[in-house]
Design brief:
Length: 271
């Protein structure tokens, strides 16, 4: 058991080390764009988190994104002064913002270009991050371990790794006062696993198994008609979407826990 845990810890550390520099290339939806101001590849991760407008926007709660976009510098100042907790709710990097709907937290949820790129980086290798097809001679984790399908737990793992890479934290920790990695991971898993037969869960996992390249590098057009139709159906009372209820429940739980804390892992300052 000890050897299994040691091996798992080593794998996690390898993922963190590779992603902390490589994620800089995944931040912009348009692969021809670059973060501004420039983010230097660095093992210290200096200047990330809520000290940089691009990483800050990814980490910001999707519910507060409109406030952030209205004045990013002011928003980041409020965070640094402890006057605003930007992490109450699901972070925006989990969403495809093209189809995000504030009235339905499942629209666009878990379908962001950044999350998919990080997933491909971790499971099929960095050379596949923009395409999903490994160009390296060495197989990625998916090939080595014969992983044929994307699961809720592998998505949650990618989300946790992305969150750490975006943040200012220089060392991995499970709990930094008010942000619990285990809670974040389990909250995502619960959205999928509370009702595996929910249409949203089925549609999302099917899409993850075969997303189109253009979806990742620009947007996710193939999901738009399906989700819009489901939203119309739900308003007409024809579909009971338990995934929405689970996502809202997890969101409330995250808010309740985070509102009792002061310091946040995303705005952690190096000393």
């Amino acid at each position: 058991m000890h050897e299994l845990q040691r091996t798992a810890n080593c794998a996690k550390t390898d993922d963190m080390s590779a992603l902390r520099q490589q994620i800089i290339h995944y931040l912009m939806e348009d692969i021809n764009d670059y973060p501004y101001p420039q983010i230097q590849p660095s093992n210290t991760k200096a200047g990330r988190g809520f000290l940089h407008p691009v990483t800050a926007r990814h980490l910001c709660s999707v519910e507060l994104l409109e406030d952030f976009d209205s004045d990013p510098e002011k928003f980041m100042d409020l965070v640094s002064e402890g006057k605003c907790d930007p992490t109450i709710g699901w972070p925006s990097f989990l969403y495809n913002l093209d189809i995000y709907d504030p009235d339905d937290v499942t629209d666009g949820f878990m379908c962001s270009f950044l999350l998919v790129r990080v997933y491909w980086h971790l499971f099929t290798g960095p050379s596949s991050a923009f395409t999903g097809h490994c160009g390296a001679l060495k197989d990625g984790k998916a090939g080595i371990h014969n992983i044929c399908n994307v699961t809720s737990r592998s998505i949650a793992y990618a989300a946790v790794q992305a969150c750490f890479a975006l943040s200012l934290c220089k060392k991995w920790c499970l709990d930094n006062g008010d942000y619990d990695v285990v809670d974040f991971f389990q909250s995502i898993v619960n959205v999928f696993e509370r009702d595996p037969d929910d249409p949203w869960v089925i549609d999302t996992l099917e899409w993850w198994d075969n997303p189109d390249i253009k979806d990742i590098n620009r947007h996710v057009p193939d999901l738009v008609p399906t989700r819009k139709q489901k939203r119309r159906d739900k308003k007409a009372g024809t579909i009971k979407n338990n995934a929405k209820q689970a996502a809202n429940k997890m969101l409330k739980a995250l808010k309740a826990k985070q509102s009792q804390k002061v310091s946040i892992i995303f705005s952690y300052e190096e000393t």
